[in-house]
Amino acid sequence: MRPPLGQLDDRGLLRAHVAGEADAFAELVRRHRDRLWAVAVRTIGNSEDAADALQDALLSAYRSAGSYRGDAAVTTWLHRIVVNACLDRVRRRQARPTVPLPDDDGRAPAAPTDLIAARETALDVRAALAELPVEQRAALILVDVQGHPVADAAEMLGVAVGTVKSRCARGRARLAVMLGHLRNPDADQDVEATEGGAR
């Protein structure tokens, strides 16, 4: 008799799914959906496209579970499918660009000044990430935001470890330039004061 699904590890759930257990894949998704969603939304930049990409990825994983070879962790396999779905969607969007609607969750901003500043900083970082080439963005999100080891990120992206390191280094350098004002917020005020005095 098979143990309850909640007691199976990820590989056991995938095997159970392939063997026809109706709820095994749903349990696997339930375990990892938050991290998969975080990768999708940060890679793509808006929740609507991220939801579509994640749905495509999970459908692909559901159908191709029998081809899982077991040479990587199940989470690595799932992340790779999600990242590839996101990259495909971003490339298609770049081929026929549209103007995205603001991604607002409808919640009122917090009143304290430090929370507002933190929200503004998060928006600045998110906007800067969206400006990076998608391959650099995906590498940075997996390594710096999600904390995956470089080797795991390389497996998820289907590239060499050195390629991930290179993409991360280039992405960090670009972000440092784009987000330099966050390190020295007084610089903007100094510039404004200088320009105001020059008028």
Secondary-structure element series: HHHHHHHHHH
Largest sheet: none
C-alpha geometry: elongated
User: Taking Cα atoms only, what radius of gyration do you get, to the nearest Å?
Assistant: 20 Å
- Mean pLDDT over all positions: 81
- How far the N terminus sits from the C terminus, by CA atoms, comes to 83 Å
Helix content: over 70%
- Low-confidence regions: 97-112, 187-199
Protein architecture, described:
This protein is an all-alpha fold. The protein has a single domain, classed as RNA polymerase sigma factor, region 2, helix turn helix motif (Rna Polymerase Sigma Factor, Chain: A, Orthogonal Bundle). The chain has helices at residues 10-18, 24-44, 47-64, 74-95, 113-131, 134-145, 150-157, 161-178, 180-183, 186-198. α1 crosses α2 (24-44), α4 crosses α7 (150-157) and α6 packs antiparallel against α7. Residues 28-95 form the RNA polymerase sigma-70 region domain.
How would you describe this structure in keywords?
DNA-binding, single chain, mainly alpha, 10 helices, WH-like_DNA-bd_sf, Rna Polymerase Sigma Factor, Chain: A, 199 residues
In short:
This protein is an all-alpha fold and 199 residues long. Helix content is 72%, strand content 0%.
